[in-house]
Amino acid sequence: MAPDLPLQPLTELVGVFVGGLSGGLAAVRKQFDIFGIVVLAWAAGLGGGLIRDVLVGAVPPVGVARWEFIVTAFAAGIAMYFFHPRLERARRVIAVLDAGALALFSVVGTLKGLELGAGATASVCVGVITGVGGGVLRDLLTGEVPVVLHHRQLYAIPAVVGASLTAVLWSTGTLTLLTELLAVAVVFVLRVVAMRLHLSAPGPWRGGH
Amino acid sequence: MAPDLPLQPLTELVGVFVGGLSGGLAAVRKQFDIFGIVVLAWAAGLGGGLIRDVLVGAVPPVGVARWEFIVTAFAAGIAMYFFHPRLERARRVIAVLDAGALALFSVVGTLKGLELGAGATASVCVGVITGVGGGVLRDLLTGEVPVVLHHRQLYAIPAVVGASLTAVLWSTGTLTLLTELLAVAVVFVLRVVAMRLHLSAPGPWRGGH
Amino acid sequence: MAPDLPLQPLTELVGVFVGGLSGGLAAVRKQFDIFGIVVLAWAAGLGGGLIRDVLVGAVPPVGVARWEFIVTAFAAGIAMYFFHPRLERARRVIAVLDAGALALFSVVGTLKGLELGAGATASVCVGVITGVGGGVLRDLLTGEVPVVLHHRQLYAIPAVVGASLTAVLWSTGTLTLLTELLAVAVVFVLRVVAMRLHLSAPGPWRGGH
Questions:
Q1: Do B204 and C81 touch (CB under 8 A)?
Q2: Where are the transmembrane segments (chains A, B, C) (predicted)?
Q3: Contacts with B150 from chain C: Cβ below 8 Å
Q4: Percent above pLDDT 90 for chain B
C-alpha cells in the first residue's frame, strides 16, 4: 500500500531548513555561541524525526545518519548566525514556511511509522511527534517551557488532524500521491487559518469550582 | 520463569491514570492550554514506560502504541482540565494512589526488562526509571527541576528496593503472583510510611570541610 | 578493520568517574539530596554513552546494563557528596581530567558507531554526542541551559575534530592502537590549549545589520 512519494526528498530538506531557522533564531536570542546556534538548528530541524526514528526503531536516525539533512540544518544555523537581523524581520514568511514544515513532517512522519509496521496508533503519535518534537527540543535546550504546550495557538491540533488523516488514508488503501498532498494541504491550511484568525486552544477550565 | 501476571492490565491502567493526573495538575498550574494539559498527562502517565521501552528495545513503546493506555492518560488530563479545583483538594488521596503507581511501575518495569533478557542490572535500572521517569519528564516539560532529585522525600528509594527485590525473586526462581504482589506492597508501604513520617533523604554533607 | 582496543576498559571507567564528579558537583550546588546527587553523577558520567547506544540501537545501553560502569558513576556521586568542598578546590585538576574524558569518549563513541555499522556520518555524530551528551543531560536535569551551547569555550569543537579524525582513520584502514591514541591526544591537547589560552567560539554575528 506504500505509494512512491516523490515529493518527499526535496520538500523534507526545505522543512528541515525552516525548522533549523527557528532553532538558530532561538539560539541567537539566547546569545549562544556559533556551535550552540548550529546545534539548535540541528535539534529544531531534525529533532522531531530523530525522536520518531528512535520510537519506531529506525536506527541510526536520519538526524544523525543522513549528511544532506544534517548539512541542511547546519546551513540554516549558519544563515541565522550571519543574517539574524534580516531574518527576524522576515518572521511572517518564516511562520508560513513553518506551517508548511509542520504539515509535511506530521504526514511524512506518520507514513514512516506505517511503513515500518508500527500500527496506526503508534504511527499517528510519532507523526505528531515528528511535527512538533523539533520545537520541543529547541525550547528545552534553550531553557524555555515548550511553546507548543502553553501558547494556546493551534499548532499541534493541525498536526493531529494530518497524522490521523494519513492513517485513515493508509488503512483504507486510498493513499496516493494526490491524497497525501491533500493531507499536507489540510494541515497547512488549518495552521495558516489559525494564525490569521488568532484561533486559540482554551486554558484550564474555570467552571469546575 | 516468567509467571503469568494477571494483576497487570487493569492496575497498570490505574497507574497510568494516576500518573496522568499529576501531569495534568502540573500543566494546569502552569496555565497550559488543553493540548498541553493532555500532553503532560501523557508524559507523566506513560513517560517512564516509554523511556524503559526505548532502553530495552521494545519499540514502538507502549506509550505510543497501545491506544487503551494513551486514552487513559488523556482521560486523566481531561479530568484535571475540568475538575482541577476539586482534584487539588483530593491531593492526599492522589498521593496515596501515586505511591501505588510507583510501586506497580517499578516492579512491572523491572519484570519487562527481565522478560526481554536485559539482565538483572539493566532491569533494575529500567524498573526504577519506569517508576520515576514520568515525573521527571513532567517536571522537565513544565520547566521545573525534577522534584525526585531534590525534594528529599523518600520517593526513588522505595522504587530501588522494589526493583531490586523483583530481580532477586526472578533470579532465584521464586517469582510468583504472590511474591510479585509482595514486592509491590513493600514499595507501597515504604513510600506511604515515608510520607507519614516525613522521612527524608539527606542533602549535601556538611562535615567534609 | 576493527583493532583491539586494550586502552578502553580502564580509561573509560576513569572517564565515567570524572564525568560523574561534574554531575555530582552540579547536584551539590543545587542542594539536591543524596539520591539526586548520585543520579546526576550517573547522568553526567554515562548519559552521553546512553544516548549514543540508543541512537545506534545497542540496547540495553551500557549506562544501565554494565554494573561496573554504574558503580563507578555512583562512586563519583558519593565522593562528591562527602568531599565536595575539597573537590571544588581541585577544580583545575578536574578540568584537565574532564578534557581527557571528553577526548576518550568522543573517539571511543565514534568507534562504537563504526563497529556497529552505523556509517561515517552517524558515527561522527554519535561520537560527539558521547563526548558532550553527559554534560547536556546534567545541565537539563539541574534546570540549566546546557553550558556547551553557550559558554563559548572551545569544548565541542575538539570532540568534533576527534570524532572526524577517528572516522577518517577507520575509513582509510589506518586505525591502530597508536593512531587511536593519537586521536585521543589531539582532542585532549586542543581542549587543554583552549582552556589555557581562553580561546572562545564567537557569539551571534553583529555585522549583518
A1: yes
A2: 6-27, 34-52, 64-83, 95-114, 177-194
A3: 30-33, 36
A4: 70
